[in-house]
Amino acid sequence: MTTAGQTRPIIHPLLVRVAHWINAFAIVCMVMSGWAIYNASPLFGFDFPRWATLGGWLGGAIAWHLAAMWLLVANGLIYLGYGLLAGHFRRHFLPLRARDLLRDVKNALTFKLAHQPGIYNAVQRLMYIAVLLLGVLVVASGLSIWKPVQLDGLVDLFGGYDVARRVHFVAMAGIVAFVAVHLALVLIVPSTLLPMLTGRAPRHAGKKPPKQEQQA
Amino acid sequence: MSEKKEKPPKNSELQPELVQLQRRLFLRSGLSLGALSLLSGCNLQDGDQVDKVLWAMSRWNDRVQSMLFRPNHLAPTYPASMITKPFPFNAFYDADSAPEIDGDTYKLEVSGLVRDKRSWNLAQLRALPQASQITRHICIEGWSAIGQWSGVPLRTFLAHIGADTTAKYVGFKCADRYYSSIDMATALHPQTILALDFGQEPLPTEYGYPLKLRVPTKLGFKNPKHIAALFVTNENPGGYWEDQGYNWFSGS
């Protein structure tokens, strides 16, 4: 039986899908255990609620954090390697032009932003590039506060241990903000969820009304 | 249960539905945050499968850190103007409960893989070469504070007692029932000292009188206070927090 499904194009390669879900699990572990570690000595005037933390106590939280970091970094390196070497980043995240960005931000704010499976608009491109850079920042600052003596050069780059700790927090906050927007967009456009599991474009992708074609 | 009297369906009829239901439940629990919050019960203290993985990863992190450790790379030092005042107190008990120790009768016991197991009094320890440092004490909780410590470099002391420096560990037992241990490479690091003074004064009671290990290349809890006994061994002696789940190496 021939169905449209068999001809629907792969918009998310297998490696990207696997890396995405491993990353999702690792990020959730890192953020929740990180919040528990934060609670042991809050940097700012608030605590994270206990139900949103992982590990039970400081020792458990640190064990989670320093175990999940290997998953996060190993998976992240494979994804970055693929993204850079296979041209995945270049094809999907570039070019990013200020003109397109202004137009798409305006469209997004007025809920007119069209969604084309497999093609990222300028707002998406900016967000994916930003979260990649935040990922590099969160790992670099995390390494520097894990090994402030052995990696003292990295600590100096951040301007000291206390600054590196704050950078680690801010990078986390940026990633959590990305995840919040990312999940909100999946709720608004639920047809984007299945392709991240199957890889294939949604069934209605081919029947897009012409007015949604972007005239850039 | 109004359908009780109906003929029960055959197993074979139920099977596909059960499988589907299981799949649905598995998927749902696999994707939900709720499943992860179940994992948050895994805290290194229940001995379940996830805890075993966490302990194994912690031992792996010990090995990685001992490879990252550079024996002659010094921890950053700071000017006296940057010393944190007041320096925070931290222990598994309140400051009032810190042990009162009589310096006149104090003895540091020495045992294990050493040639000379005689005990040391404070005058003998002060007669050894002394070193001073202003370094950052980093707590596992995340805060840090800069302090000044002076005393006998541990490697000098180990040389005096004829320690087997090819052994793996140096262990410490303390008057406040605390205990800890460090790897030999860290014990021989030039900044690892048996501190007698804090600032310009003998260690105050709450900071570990009369003897405290100062290791600027490790987290604060690896700096035991009120040391009563030191021993050299090839069996990992663990530690008060380490045995509960803090990473053993905990290098900085």
Task: Tell me what you see in this structure.
The complex is a heterodimer of chains A (216) and B (252). Chain A is mainly alpha-helical and 216 residues long. Chain A has 2 domains: 10-92; 95-199. Chain A contains 8 helices and no strands. Chain A has helices spanning 14-40, 58-85, 88-93, 98-109, 122-146, 152-158, 161-188, 195-198. In chain A, α1 packs antiparallel against α2, α5 packs across α6 (152-158) and α5 (122-146) packs antiparallel against α7. With 252 residues, chain B is α+β, with helices and mostly antiparallel strands. Chain B has 6 helices and 9 strands. Chain B has helices at 11-31, 33-39, 49-68, 122-127, 154-160, 184-187; strands spanning 109-112, 131-138, 144-153, 169-174, 179-183, 193-198, 201-202, 212-214, 227-233. In chain B, strands 2, 3, 6, 7 and 8 form a 5-stranded antiparallel β-sheet that branches. Chain B is globular, with a radius of gyration of 26 Å.
- Indicate the CATH architecture of the domain at 69-244 in chain B: Alpha-Beta Complex
For the termini of chain A, the CA-CA separation is 39 Å
Question: SS-based structural class of chain B?
Answer: alpha+beta
Task: Report the total helices of chain B.
Answer: 6
How much is the average pLDDT of chain B?
Answer: 87
Instruction: Tally the beta strands of chain A.
Output: 0
Query: Span from first to last CA of chain B?
Result: 63 Å
The profile of the biggest β sheet of chain B is: 5 strands, antiparallel
Strand content of chain B: 15-25%
| Strand and helix order of chain B | HHHEHEEHEEHEEEE
